[in-house]
Specification:
This protein has one domain: Rossmann fold (3-Layer(aba) Sandwich), CATH 3.40.50.970. A hairpin with a 2-residue loop joins β5 and β6. About 35% of the residues lie in helices and about 15% in strands. It is of the alpha/beta class. α4 runs parallel beside α6.
Length: about 300
């Protein structure tokens, strides 16, 4: 379990002065995840907000070895580095324990990089993959992704006279990864820091691949005041839009249960990307979203009771 006193003694591995937006959920997620181990780490990041805003030449915000990859191949790259490390350790050329972690946004994970991720998981590399999910291709203009929820307005699925935004439901990537039967899978968000850091500790300690899907609100794409990022993340959990759970060696467990499950309208009215759903003609869309969330939560509870 994450201990605040111990965490305060750890060095900052992502330094200040980067150019991520004020109120960016991704930078908060990275700092919390990297508190999950005291060992040296090697970081890889696919192209995306995190990479472009922390490594603007000739500067870097990273205080650890860092590798930039294309959109689609961070999992393959880090799995290769981890393989090289194991070979060198076997030869006695490296003796210290080193952890390997890959960061990718939902564009580079849910969509473009899923083949690379799936291959790395299937091969069984001892590495951690973190998807910082901001639910669109934020780096390139707020285009819809496989993580964009139904009803959200994006630049490639805009709300208007002919559309209520994205018509499809988002991909359940966490469940897809869990289907690979790897040692550790988790879903988390930045508002519940102790939950996230504890999950990161388990992921780094896993004997094999580990995956954490972290919801990282984006005020630019979601259209809310930048100081509300943590509150928006918390609301995602309280409405069960983004449940917090883990799958540890095949055992599903909910790690946080809201005391009072809030209606999805509380989540919808907090963000400009959903404002059109508050119109009377879109009431059936909101009802359908609520129904899907209720069914997904019931299904999760069933999985966790097995």
């Amino acid at each position: 379990m994450a201990n605040l006193k111990d965490l305060s003694k750890l060095p900052e591995r992502l330094g200040p002065g980067h150019r991520l937006c004020a109120g960016c959920g991704a930078s908060i997620a990275v700092r919390q995840v990297l508190m999950g181990t005291k060992d040296p780490v090697v970081v890889g990041a696919s192209t995306g907000c995190l990479e472009v805003a922390t490594t603007i030449y000739p500067f870097t915000a990273w205080r650890v070895p860092f590798i930039h990859n294309a959109f689609e191949n961070v999992a393959a790259t880090i799995s290769g580095v981890e393989t090289a490390y194991r070979a060198l350790k076997k030869q006695g050329k490296i003796k210290k324990e080193i952890k390997f972690i890959a960061f990718g946004g939902d564009g580079g994970t849910y969509d473009i990089g899923i083949q690379s991720l799936s291959g790395a998981l299937e091969r069984g590399h001892k590495m951690v993959y973190v998807c910082y999910t901001n639910e669109a291709y934020m780096n390139t203009g707020i285009q819809r992704s496989g993580a964009t929820p139904c009803g959200a307005s994006t630049t490639t699925a805009p709300a208007g006279k002919e559309s209520y935004g994205k018509p499809q439901s988002r991909k359940d990537l966490t469940a897809i990864v869990a289907a690979h039967h790897i040692p550790y899978v988790a879903q988390a968000t930045i508002s519940h820091w102790k939950d996230l850091i504890t999950k990161a500790q388990k992921a780094f300690a896993a004997n094999g691949p580990a995956f954490i899907n972290v919801l990282c609100p984006c005020h630019r794409g979601w259209r809310y005041p930048q100081e509300n990022t943590v509150e928006i993340a918390k609301l995602a959990v309280e409405t069960c839009f983004w449940p917090l759970y883990e799958v540890e060696n095949g055992k599903w467990r909910i790690t946080y249960r809201p005391k009072e499950k809030k209606p999805i309208t509380e989540w919808i009215k907090s963000q400009g990307r959903f404002k059109h759903l508050l119109k009377e003609e879109n009431k059936p869309v909101v009802e359908a979203i609520q129904k899907e969330i209720d069914e997904s939560w019931a299904h999760l509870e069933k999985l966790c009771s097995l």
